[in-house]
Amino acid sequence: MDAVHYFAVVTERPAEGASSRRPRGAVRDGLVRAGLELARAGGPDAVVLREVARMVGVVPNAAYRHFADREELLAAVCTAAMQELAARMAADVGRVRGRRGGAAAARRRLRAVGQAYLAFARAEPGLFATAFALPARHGYDDPGGGPAATPLPLDQLRNELDELVQAGTLDAQRRPGIEYPVWAAVHGLAVLTVQGPLRDHPPAMAPHLDELTLGFIEGALGERKG
User: For the whole prediction, is pTM greater than 0.85?
Assistant: First the structure.
């Protein structure tokens, strides 16, 4: 369902004689969805409480019953944006063939994590920026932590690194904390090419930079100290 149709449904007047009360949570969900669409178009700065109230068809005071202020709304939209990134990553990883614990399949799944992350950043720059607008919103230091329905992107990376250990591709002694430099490399490339100094480079350059970065990561993970 597209955003325009969604909001038309949410704001539709009830039939005469029917209860005007909306299902429990419908207004809050509508406000978050509206905020997500604003973020998709304009990033975190575009998420304004009065505007989402207008889109959903409620007065601002009704919106304040669900969110104390803009920061609280942005936190909810931030979580929703991160979940959209996580869902797309999980879908791409899920399409990779091969049994769990197989070396070749484990490497392909790790690469799929990075490719999906970069693809989302470029296809949805507004949502990508919004997902990281409030860093404290996500339980980065707590593997599997947080209320996410789909594992957070960092947890998905952790899972694939664990699989590399299981497959014998990554030395178990090097595993603790190695997700952070791997994440830093991929996230750094995303920021550089989406909103940083590399954003004006020809689009054809992006796949080459992706390959260099992912190949560098794979090579580094495969190195063993003698």
Answer: no
